[in-house]
Design a protein that fits this description.
The chain has 188 residues and is an all-alpha fold. The protein has one domain: Orthogonal Bundle (Hypothetical protein af1432). It is 67% helix and 0% strand. The chain contains ten helices and no strands. Helix 4 (58-67) crosses helix 5 (83-95) and helix 7 packs across helix 9. The longest helix is centred in the first third of the chain and has 21 residues, at 16-36. The site of 2'-deoxyguanosine-5'-diphosphate has 16 residues, from helix 9. This is bis(5'-nucleosyl)-tetraphosphatase (symmetrical). It comes from Bacillus salipaludis. It catalyses: P(1),P(4)-bis(5'-adenosyl) tetraphosphate + H2O = 2 ADP + 2 H(+). One of its GO terms (molecular function) is nucleotide binding.
């Protein structure tokens, strides 16, 4: 699907604020993909659709996770995690996106997972550092991303885990596993 058509499809699903965020993720994902030699077209498409399900009712996302083969333990953690797998499912079903690399990048853009592909890392990080993001620590991660994607990713996960800890929120085990996987690989 071409960029303009994809943007039109996704715009209908999002608030204006979230659409602006999506444009920032798209722009950043293309820059990162170029930098690390990931597929730019796939990065563009995954970025455009990454938050497709962000505003779906919780009940709809819960139902998708229950019935479409996703890990059931997601339902025991923050509902913020659900739009990623639900989005991967809905983008295929409703927008006709079939590229499994793109769908996988959407699926894991919130939790991460051990053994992330280059494209998955690009989308995860672009989501975190796009120009519209202003939370504490984001500028440091932006600088790190220019040098080393894995180090930037580790920092972003550390920040997210700290943020959740401070808010007394549960942390999805796969987020820890993603962190462990990246840190161990960096040591090798
Ligand atoms: O959808 P976005 O806001 O663009 O970003 P996202 O899909 O990365 O969602 C991030 C939010 O999810 C962030 O505010 C933290 C929250 N969250 C809740 N539980 C977890 C979690 N993030 C991770 N990585 N792991 C969790 O267990
Ligand atoms: Fe998201
Ligand atoms: Fe996002």
């Amino acid at each position: 699907m071409e960029r303009n058509e994809a943007l039109k499809v996704v715009k209908e699903q999002l608030t204006d604020h979230r659409y602006q965020h999506t444009l920032g993720v798209m722009e950043t994902a293309i820059i990162l993909a170029k930098q690390v030699g990931a597929d730019e077209k796939k990065a563009e498409l995954a970025a455009i659709f990454h938050d497709y399900a962000k505003f779906r009712p919780k009940e709809e996302m819960r139902e998708i996770i229950l019935t479409q083969g996703f890990p059931q333990d997601l339902l025991e953690y923050n509902a913020e995690l659900w739009h990623a797998p639900a989005g991967a499912y809905l983008v295929e079903k409703e927008a006709g996106i079939t590229d499994t690399d793109v769908l996988t990048a959407i699926r894991y853009h919130t939790s991460g997972r051990p053994g992330m592909s280059l494209l998955e890392k690009v989308i995860y990080l672009a989501d975190y550092i796009e120009p519209g993001r202003h939370f504490p620590g984001v500028e440091e991660v932006r600088e790190m991303a220019k040098e080393n994607l894995d180090k930037a990713l580790i920092k972003s996960i550390q920040n997210t885990i700290s943020f959740l800890l401070k808010k007394n929120q549960p942390i999805y085990p796969e987020t820890f596993q993603t962190y462990n996987d990246l840190v161990k690989k960096l040591e090798d």
